[in-house]
Design a protein that fits this description.
The chain is mainly α. The protein is 58% helix and 10% strand.
């Protein structure tokens, strides 16, 4: 698999993730303007990661899994993390308003 093919797959992954999450795809943290944004890697940054993947086998496996088959798993893990963040936030779910509270 060539570097160009891998970079194209990464770009497709980033575009799909941004679309599904409803977040803008930005080239730098500054572009997010204190809001949410999914940072896109430049080709040179991507090539640095590719080089690291060649020298660090564990990192390389995790990275390839994420690019090849991990999108749905990644999305579900993000959903779990978001649920964990809001798990302690009480919300009222009873329409009779009897004071019963459940997690968000």
């Amino acid at each position: 698999m060539t570097g160009r093919l891998i970079f194209r797959r990464y770009e497709e992954f980033a575009v799909r993730a941004a679309s599904d999450l409803g977040m803008p795809l930005v080239d730098s943290i500054d572009e997010a303007k204190s809001g949410w944004g999914l940072r896109r890697l430049s080709r040179s940054a991507f090539e640095k990661l590719e080089e690291r993947a060649r020298t660090d086998h564990d990192f390389g496996q995790r990275w390839l899994n994420r690019l090849q088959i991990g999108y749905d798993r990644e999305k579900s893990q993000m959903a779990i993390k978001i649920e964990d963040i809001f798990a302690d936030v009480p919300c009222r779910t009873d329409v009779n308003c009897d004071g019963h509270e459940d997690a968000a």
